[in-house]
Design goal:
The protein is an alpha+beta fold. The protein has 2 domains: about 100 residues; about 55 residues, Head domain of nucleotide exchange factor GrpE (Nucleotide Exchange Factor Grpe, Chain A, domain 2), CATH 2.30.22. A 3-stranded antiparallel β-sheet has the order 1-4-5. It has a 3-stranded mixed β-sheet with strand order 2-6-3, with no helix packed on it. β4 and β5 form a beta hairpin. About 5% of the residues have low confidence.
Length: about 200
């Protein structure tokens, strides 16, 4: 065979070269596959779903309100019962302390006409009445009650109740007489004094 005879061409494709071409193609231009979840956006809740959620929240708030209202009503009733019990106890204590003075007055009235000397009995009656009054006033003063001094003071509608007006030569508006004594409990006037005022 002649040296000039050429060898046949190799038409087979090199697998490594083909693989390299695919790798370059993938690196240069191709994109990875995208899932359906990434393509489709999440849908907002429907109006019906929102309404249902609001109804559930409303029911929760309504239930909370009813429970709080019931708790408050029970609290009011309990405090009212405590107040009634306290005032009843205070009134009872005051009455119990006043009863001995009432007993003394009963004994005084029973013995008023027992003696033969009416004048002596009259003096004894006055002394007994004064003692009873002093005992009651001591008891009331211990609880914050004070008598309102009225005679000779300027008329004050916050303290006095004028029953009549009497003309005299002195300054007008002065309390001349006291028909019924007034009292304070602390700073509060619990009974106005009934008085006669100068005109």
């Amino acid at each position: 065979m002649s040296k000039e005879q050429k060898e046949p061409l190799n038409l087979e494709t090199d697998p490594a070269a083909e693989s390299g071409e695919l790798s370059e193609e993938t690196a240069s231009g191709s994109e990875p596959a995208i899932s359906q979840a990434e393509v489709e956006p999440e849908l907002p809740p429907s109006p019906d779903d929102e309404i249902q959620q609001l109804k559930l929240q409303l029911d929760e708030y309504k239930d909370l309100f009813l429970r709080k209202a019931a708790e408050f009503e029970n609290f009011k009733k309990r405090k009212q019962q405590e107040y009634v019990a306290l005032t009843t106890s205070a009134t009872e204590a005051l009455i119990v302390e006043l009863l001995p003075a009432l007993d003394d007055l009963d004994r005084l009235l029973e013995n008023a006409g027992a003696g033969e000397n009416n004048k002596e009995n009259s003096e004894s009656l006055r002394r007994g009445a004064r003692q009873i009054r002093d005992k009651i006033m001591d008891l009331l003063q211990a609880r914050g009650v004070k008598a309102i001094e009225s005679v000779g003071t300027l008329f004050d509608p916050e303290l006095h109740e004028a029953l009549m007006q009497e003309q005299n030569s002195g300054e007008p508006g002065i309390v001349l007489k006291e028909f019924r004594r007034g009292y304070r409990l602390g700073v509060k006037v619990i009974r106005h004094a009934q008085v006669v005022v100068s005109g």
